[in-house]
Amino acid sequence: PEDFVLTDNGVRQQIDSVESTALPIDLTLVVDLSGNPRRPWLARVDPAKVAASVEKEVQEVTKILRPADRVRLLAIDRYVQQVWSLQPAAAQSPIRRVDFDGLGSVYDTLAAALLQPVEPARRHVVIARTKGTDTVSAIDARALRAIAERSDALLQLVVMESALGSDSALSAFQSNLIGLAEPTNRSWLPHHRRLVAPIAPYQVLSDGMAVRSAVETAGGGWHQAAGFTEATLTGIFRETFEYFRLGYLLPYT
């Protein structure tokens, strides 16, 4: 214990012990299934295919978990969807259906993930992938930043740049799919609050700066594409898992 200096609100604490035992992890995965309000009206995607795609992605992450770890799945769409509550990794339920292609409640869903109470003998990790386009949340980026700064969860936020690029391309070439129709104009479009610009080089905007600052201050990470490689849920969790394995627990009263 004498090798460490630990402070709580600036006051040095007496460390009871140094433990290297790996604590069990409660993992909350957040996937963004919201749609692009500016794209043309196209044939609706098969809901079963969307559910199967999400399930496959989540299974890749849960393979890394240990028997004592638990996992929860949230989905971003027009409201906060809890697909599963916390459950043992080995007891992962099949995903029958998820709502998708609606407006984005990004800030509300991230807040719901961070507000999960953390048990003292466990660690809570939130890994979220999102296009970062919020249209219907009740809270704003500043409120989300305040929650992230005070949460006991470690938040890793992955920006889906390929999805942003796809949305931008569809919006620009709405009616060129058939070559005859004029571009489709919707009667109403919601106000967009964005973490990053929707086109390359995907510059971080003011909302994104606020959230990024809170995430990194709390020990988490903001992940965008590096070169031609886009961050994934599996890759980010693998890094986080290794980080925890190499860490120490410093209990104090």
Overview features:
two-stranded antiparallel ribbon; 253 residues; alpha/beta
- Side by side, the strands of the main sheet go 5-4-3-6-8-10
What is the N-to-C succession of helices and strands? EEEHEEHEEHEHEHEH
Give the integer mean of the pLDDT values. Answer: 85
Which structural class is indicated by helix and strand composition?
Answer: alpha/beta
Number of strands: 10
Taking Cα atoms only, what radius of gyration do you get, to the nearest Å?
Answer: 20 Å
SS element count, helices: 6
Which ranges are low-confidence, i.e. pLDDT below 50, for 5 or more consecutive residues?
Answer: none
Distance between the termini: 14 Å
What general outline do the C-alpha atoms trace? globular
- Please give the largest β-sheet: 6 strands, mixed
Strand content: 15-25%
What is the percent of helical residues? 25-40%
TL;DR?
With 253 residues, the protein is of the alpha/beta class. 28% of the residues lie in helices and 19% in strands. It has helices spanning 47-62, 106-114, 141-150, 161-172, 206-217, 233-245; strands spanning 7-8, 11-12, 25-32, 70-76, 80-88, 123-130, 133-134, 154-159, 193-194, 221-223.
Describe the structure.
The protein is of the alpha/beta class and 253 residues long. Helices cover 28% and strands 19% of the residues. The chain is built from six helices and ten strands, in the order βββαββαββαβαβαβα. It has helices spanning 47-62, 106-114, 141-150, 161-172, 206-217, 233-245, and strands at 7-8, 11-12, 25-32, 70-76, 80-88, 123-130, 133-134, 154-159, 193-194, 221-223. The two termini are 14 Å apart. The mean pLDDT is 85.
